[in-house]
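Protein chain data
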Amino acid sequence: MKVCLFDIDGTLVLTGGAGMYAFAETFAEDFGVAEISREVPFAGCSDRGIAGNLFLAHGIENSEANWDRFRAGYVARITDHVRRCDGLVLPGVFELIDRLEALGDVHLGLLTGNVAAAAEVKLKHYRLWDRFAFGGFGDDHPDRNDIAMTAVARARERHGGQSDVERIVVIGDTPNDIRCARAVGALAVAAPTGHTPAEVLAAAGPDLLVETLEDADGIVAFLAD
């Protein structure tokens, strides 16, 4: 069994900042924070981790109750922002997925910091949600490494608890995607299609660095090797 896990934002799609706008609106309307801190990073981080860091930055208790309150407000707002923002499916995504599915022995999943409901909203909007059967999400854990472990466990559960995964590949656009691949013994494919320059990704040591996911030949050969 081979498993290929995709990040969402900056890897599969660009949403025109929909998630950040929904974050800001939720903090403004539900927590009274007029402007969220720009010191808290978003790229490569989980929604739960980002929310927790914003709670701390703005003197709000980082509690389960506040997380539940934030998640409910964020999920209620994300659909509208995804529809209004100018986003796109990144070049090569549909072809790469088609090519991987055609191999027959590759199981496609998600490894994302998005909470599951937001991931579904984003990918349904761009007609990608049904291409992935399982995943690890940002409401599973705040840490991307733990999310990766959950994604791999779900892949095994879907296939009778198989432990003999021949190869796991994580495809993403940030150093955090590369790090969480390492946490589960996976190979890392990186593409500078989000906001991280190619030289920064190269320094993080991916197993394969491509310019875009239009390099389907290279990625398929890497996975099948």
User: Anything to note?
Assistant: The first strand starts at residue 2 and ends at 6. The beta strands are 2-6, 13-14, 88-89, 106-111, 134-136, 167-172, 187-190, 208-209.
